[in-house]
């Protein structure tokens, strides 16, 4: 039996700001229980809903040295969907209204979390063969593990994996502050270790010290070796290319299933979507005050509203796009400039554009189920889960060919009758608009072809199955 420990800053259903939570909440369930004992550690944020905190069991507490003082570490545990979750409690760090509060506060929060995650292992009596770390918040774990903890018998030989979900965020701040917080001496802050352009960098530490590195699609694994996508770490990614692999994300096929989805008014499947899916669209048009017209091409967007997602291309083309026979339904929060942009166009084109500037699991499912197409013109996209959810719900993705979008959406080819969506290559607003208009033409003029695109999309398998097997191979190889 191999013991695997996931450590991350978010996991569904407890806390979610993006796709990281989906991955950490759904992947651990997908390993065969006879061979892998997979457990998960996340922070015990005070925003976690009572329905979950009520079920948590207190395990123990102790004090741990960090940043020149003794800090309280509480441990709670709970089993969810067959997986054991541990929650690290410390009100000072985890009581904000959001999991992330920005720098430099988050630096101490996640240094604390990383050191605590290692420190609780003897207390919970779980010695993992592998610690699987996710994103910059856990970047210090491989560092602490190799340089601090492996001196003691309990930790010796534990291997670590660093998975990059987004290279944009690295946890970078001045060396003096990071040294003080982490307790790591000068010798760690050299360009071959945690130093990044004279600053300290948590994720870089993780990428240097981890035994293996993965990221969430094959294309992104290649892209990050280049300056455009490398976020300053392309040299390191290139140097560690032998230890870096791309394993595409899956989604939870039980959670995202149009046949059983509790959030949608009309359930459907790959056989009856032609008749049933449209009923969801009408229900959503009514709910959001759009023109009720079952025929109108509805384009959905469910997204963090940040530069990553290509929203400046959309902003640039909104007026033109709204001259077409389309409806646009947006759900998202983030950068105020994009929130206000969508609010503005919803005001200007009230019957066509609906801007829902909030976070709602239920509304996201309704949009995946109701929209005809899903727009995701990302500047970069390590994997992207929304397009996978769209494919699962028979909603045709329109994407830019980057990262995981490129790997998971096959462009429609009308001559060969292949493809599951529409895509364009260059980060260019006119190219995007041209592609949307091509999709409009197929939708309005060649409905049978459009429906065949949906057939092919819904026949794809982006459950975790094959990706979990690739992680198993990596675990087995490392734990030999
Ligand atoms: P990222 O992790 O970069 O945000 P992904 O496509 O990997 O992008 O995952 C985004 C996840 O967050 C999806 O599950 C998507 O449905 C969800 N999501 C994003 N914004 C919202 C929102 N406002 N309300 C509900 N779910 C959202
Ligand atoms: C990040 C990426 C996204 C990916 C998700 C889960 O948030 O932006 O592309 O799907 O992590 O791996």
Descriptive account of the structure:
By secondary structure, the chain is α/β, with parallel strands linked by helices. It has 2 domains: 2-250 and 465-479, Rossmann fold (3-Layer(aba) Sandwich); 273-461, 3-Layer(aba) Sandwich (Rossmann fold). The chain has 20 helices and 18 strands. The strands form 3 sheets. The chain has a 9-stranded mixed β-sheet with strand order 3-4-5-2-1-6-7-11-12, with helices on both faces. Strand 14 (326-334), helix 14 (336-348) and strand 15 (353-356) form a beta-alpha-beta unit. Helix 6 crosses helix 8 (202-209). The mean pLDDT is 97. The protein binds adenosine-5'-diphosphate and alpha-D-glucopyranose (GLC).
Task: Give structural attributes.
single chain, about 475 residues, Rossmann fold, 2 domains, six-stranded parallel β-sheet, 18 strands, binds adenosine-5'-diphosphate
What is the compact description of this entry?
Helix content is 38%, strand content 21%. The chain has helices at 19-26, 50-53, 91-94, 105-119, 121-124, 140-147, 175-182, 202-209, 218-223, 227-230, 234-239, 273-288, 311-321, 336-348, 361-370, 386-392, 403-408, 429-445, 447-459, 465-479; strands at residues 2-7, 36-43, 57-66, 69-80, 83-89, 130-134, 159-164, 172-174, 195-196, 199-201, 212-215, 244-246, 297-305, 326-334, 353-356, 373-376, 396-400, 422-424.
């Amino acid at each position: 039996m191999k013991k695997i420990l996931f450590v991350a800053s978010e996991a569904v259903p407890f806390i979610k700001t993006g796709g990281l939570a989906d991955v950490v909440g759904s992947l651990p369930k997908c390993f065969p229980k006879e061979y892998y004992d997979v457990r998960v550690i996340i922070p015990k944020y005070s925003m976690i809903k009572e329905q979950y905190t009520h079920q948590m069991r207190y395990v123990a507490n102790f004090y741990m040295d960090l940043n020149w003082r003794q800090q309280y570490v509480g441990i709670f545990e709970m089993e969810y969907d067959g997986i054991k979750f541990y929650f690290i409690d410390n009100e000072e760090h985890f009581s904000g209204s959001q999991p992330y509060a920005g720098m430099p506060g988050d630096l101490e929060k996640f240094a604390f979390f990383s050191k605590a995650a290692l420190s609780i292992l003897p207390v919970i009596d779980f010695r993992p063969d592998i610690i699987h770390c996710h994103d910059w918040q856990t970047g210090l774990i491989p560092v602490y593990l190799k340089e601090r903890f492996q001196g003691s018998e309990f930790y010796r030989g534990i291997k670590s994996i660093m998975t990059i979900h987004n290279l944009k965020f690295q946890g970078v701040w001045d060396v003096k502050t990071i040294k003080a917080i982490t307790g790591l001496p000068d010798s760690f802050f050299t360009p071959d270790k945690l130093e990044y352009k004279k600053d300290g960098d948590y994720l870089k530490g993780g990428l240097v010290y981890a035994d293996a590195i993965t990221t969430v699609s094959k294309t992104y694994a290649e892209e990050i070796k280049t300056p455009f996508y490398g976020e300053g770490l392309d040299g390191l990614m290139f140097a560690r290319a032998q230890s870096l692999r791309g394993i595409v994300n899956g989604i939870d096929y039980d959670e995202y299933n149009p046949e059983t989805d509790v959030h949608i008014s009309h359930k459907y499947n790959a056989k009856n979507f032609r008749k049933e899916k449209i009923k969801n669209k009408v229900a959503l048009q009514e709910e959001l005050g759009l023109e009720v017209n079952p025929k109108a091409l509805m384009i959905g967007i469910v997204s963090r509203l940040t530069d990553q997602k290509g929203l400046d291309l959309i902003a640039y083309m909104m007026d033109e796009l709204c001259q077409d026979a389309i409806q646009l339904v947006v759900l998202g929060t983030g950068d105020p400039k994009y929130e206000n942009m969508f609010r503005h166009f919803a005001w200007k084109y009230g019957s066509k554009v609906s801007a829902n500037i909030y976070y709602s699991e239920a509304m996201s499912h309704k949009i995946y189920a109701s929209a005809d197409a899903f727009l995701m013109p990302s500047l970069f996209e390590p994997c992207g889960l929304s397009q996978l959810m769209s494919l699962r719900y028979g909603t045709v993705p329109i994407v830019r060919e980057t990262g995981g979008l490129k790997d998971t959406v096959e462009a429609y080819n009308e001559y060969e009758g292949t493809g599951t969506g529409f895509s364009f290559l260059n980060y260019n607003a006119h190219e995007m608009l041209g592609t949307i208009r091509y999709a409009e033409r197929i939708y309005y003029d060649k409905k049978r072809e459009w429906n065949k695109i949906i057939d092919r999309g819904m026949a794809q398998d982006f459950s975790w199955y094959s990706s979990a097997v690739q992680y198993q191979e990596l675990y087995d190889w490392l734990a030999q």
